Amino acid sequence: SLRTALRRGLQAMDRTQVLETRSRGDSQGHADHPAVQKVCHACCTFGDHVRGLLGRQTQKRFLLSIAEVFAGLLDEIDFRVRRVPDVAAYLGIRLRTIGLSPFFVLLAEPSLSTKSGSLVALEMCAKMAVGMQNDLVGLEKDRSEGEWMNFALMAAGKDGGAARVADGVFRCTEAHNCVMRMAVHCWKLVE
Predict the structure, then answer these.
(1) Chain segment 112-125, per-residue pLDDT in tens
(2) Are 179 and 118 in contact (CB under 8 A)?
(3) Is 152:139 a contact under the CB 8 Å cutoff?
(4) Which pLDDT band, with edges at 50, 70 and 90, does 82 fall under?
């Protein structure tokens, strides 16, 4: 049902798709589920609000960036079900689910239709760093709740003993620091 709610939420930001979805219903029978209806309503309302505040091009980029966060959440659900601790795949998903892309769209100069490679790299570094920081801060909670989708825990491997977790934390910290060095380098190129 969460998967359906997210898909419908993505569609809800485009009014024409919402009307088509409502008219034909949900093929899996979830369209009438209260959670799906709430997500659709929230996305429709949000989409209407954004249309009144942003210029057409910025609005389009902004809503697409939110759709990318939702798509990342769908990928996260699939990744969680597969339970394959692939750090690279996890980071690819985390870059989207951390939710910074919509804010970068709002921060960008509205008249810019394309970004320099350095600015794109800087944004990616920022997303990656925030994701790793979030995983480090939430490590103890994730361990106590049996959550395995955490960079440090995946880097620690399956055994999860204290020495392995310490190694995972070290690897996550090293990766974070490397990303921060790259971010500083990208920032210098953007200036």
Answers:
(1) 555 678 888 988 99
(2) no
(3) yes
(4) confident
